[in-house]
Target: Nicotinate-nucleotide--dimethylbenzimidazole phosphoribosyltransferase
Amino acid sequence: MAGRPSPTGSPVPPPDPAVAAAAAERLAGLATPTGALGRLGDLAVWLSAAQGQVPPIPLTDIRLVIFAGDHGVARHGVSAYPPEITAAMVRTFVAGKAGVSALAAAHDVRVRVLDLGVDDDLAGVPADVRARKVRRSSGAIHLEDALSPDETRRALDAGGAVADEEIDAGAQLLLSGDMGIGNTTPAAALVAAALGLPASEVTGRGTGIDDATWNRKVEVVQAALDRAGDRALDPVETLTALSSADLAAATGYLARAAERGVPVLLDGLMSVACALTADRLAPGAAAWFAAGHRSTEPAQTLALAKLGLEPVLDLGLRLGEGSGAVAAVPVLRSAVAVLRDVALLADLLPSR
Ligand SMILES: Cc1cc2ncn([C@H]3O[C@H](COP(=O)(O)O)[C@@H](O)[C@H]3O)c2cc1C
Ligand SMILES: O=C(O)c1cccnc1
Model:
């Protein structure tokens, strides 16, 4: 199946401004004091415009795709955990026993996990999980490119094709999640590349590293940025030099969702770093994204600010997997409910 091409750099139109205006008008007319619904009202207007209808329809089909892969840097002292955890967690998602699995079950979110670059062959794991594998462990970005140019293209295309599959199957809202020990290192590098910042400002504690490991991680991120040099000015080159198969695929998925006009709820650092990169590839894509939560990673906050997104939740989460996005789902459903089901003030008053 050929599918659509990878993002071409063409601008993405935003959700319909006329629908947004009609949704805002309905919000203003609800039987509540003006502005009393706060950000719930803003989210309702955004979702209504993204759906192209007022009021918005209930969210009954929400889908999370978890992009899994290993990272060469994980063998260079940047994480608190060993790379073998990645494959073990993929099996745990399949078994429905991960942190995000519990949240997704609670909130009726469908979960799909995809191996783009896990180091293990994942024998015994269902074939559809492995069907889009691009390579084993992506390159250690401080020493070599994460991907070849061909692998970058294949990963972007794989992510786009997965978005197409989920949208064609009926997804009303897409979420992106991640699994890959060491992945906060390339994600921080992606944010630094997009924002022109030094490693010391973007590097966080990931799984909970100590000061010595953090210093080492800053060195690795800075060496990767120095190695990439001016290539970081171009988003596809940035992905080749500094990302991984899983992060490039998540970027393709997010860009394609925006191009198809399907709203997205973002998660933590990896999700938001890929959203920032998707918005570089497909300018305007960010208008289709809402931020599920603020993670503890500094690069995630920096990227959200650049994208102009205010997170729904701020719970101190630093899990990834899509957990912060899934935790925010009830808030989005609440936003739909108020704009749909609250009476209009004009209808309560005796007509004169
Ligand atoms: C058991 C376990 C489950 C996880 N689920 C998500 N992550 C998260 O932590 C990792 C990123 O942090 P760092 O860059 O410091 O390695 C990723 O796998 C991310 O998905 C996990 C990490 C662990 C250990
Ligand atoms: O921001 C995240 O999602 C995150 C932070 C630390 C570790 N894993 C994920």
User: Anything to note?
Assistant: The CA atoms of residues 63 and 166 lie 7 Å apart. The pocket of nicotinic acid (ligand 2) is lined by residues 184, 206-207, 267-270, 295, 297, 300, 318-320 (CB under 6 Å). The two ends are 63 Å apart (CA to CA).
